[in-house]
Amino acid sequence: MNNKSDEEILELFRDKNTQSQAFSFLVKKYQERLYWQIRKIVLLHDDTDDVLQNTFVKIWKGLQNFRSDSQLFTWIFRIATNEALTFLKDKQKKHLGYANSEVEDMLLANLEADPYFDANKAQLELQKAILKLPEKQRLVFNMKYFDDLKYTEMSEILETSVGALKASYHHAVKKIESFLSLNEV
């Protein structure tokens, strides 16, 4: 198993002779976390795989210029999040004639039909509630609730103040509670 630190990986990447090995370490270290981060945004397994692949391509192309202004983890998460959001925006452009609620219904129907989504009724209701949130609140809720990220990490990834993130999370939780109480899960 790879127990290399981010610093060790970056050091290996700077050497042309060990660049591929370093990138392999990076993929092994972050692939699963990035998969789930993307999956919570795009919802479907196949879409997640596509976005994950695009994410690693961007990381490979940009790693040479990584300046260590932030942690490698937050830089990678930002790329994954941006790729997922870009994917969703592109998908919504294809459905321009649809209202937001219709797009949410399509996403939910796709999620329910996804053979990789194995959920009980409560989990499905939670996903329905999360889908009803505005995009930013959905991102913040997923990062805090499912990934247990610190607000400071989220602030670097989303390039937003900690105060705004706390407010978004608070509003998201209230909306989800309200949705779930109305639907009595």
Automatic annotation (TrEMBL):
UniProt keyword list: DNA-binding, Sigma factor, Transcription, Transcription regulation
Domain RNA polymerase sigma factor 70 region 4 type per the UniProt entry, residue ranges: 124-176
Gene3D superfamilies on file: 1.10.1740.10, Winged helix-like DNA-binding domain superfamily/Winged helix DNA-binding domain
Keyword Ion transport: no
Superkingdom of the source species: Bacteria
One Pfam family this sequence matches: Sigma70_r4_2
InterPro entries attached to this UniProt entry: RNA_pol_sigma-70-like, RNA_pol_sigma-70_dom, RNA_pol_sigma70_ECF_CS, RNA_pol_sigma70_r2, RNA_pol_sigma70_r4_t2, RNA_pol_sigma_r2, RNA_pol_sigma_r3/r4-like, WH-like_DNA-bd_sf
Keyword DNA-binding listed: yes
Alphabetical list of PROSITE patterns matching this protein: SIGMA70_ECF (PS01063)
RNA polymerase sigma-70 region domain: residues covered: 26-93
UniProt GO molecular function: DNA binding; sigma factor activity
An individual GO BP term: DNA-templated transcription initiation
Entry's family note: Belongs to the sigma-70 factor family. ECF subfamily.
Protein name from the UniProt record: RNA polymerase sigma factor
Biological source species: Labilibaculum antarcticum
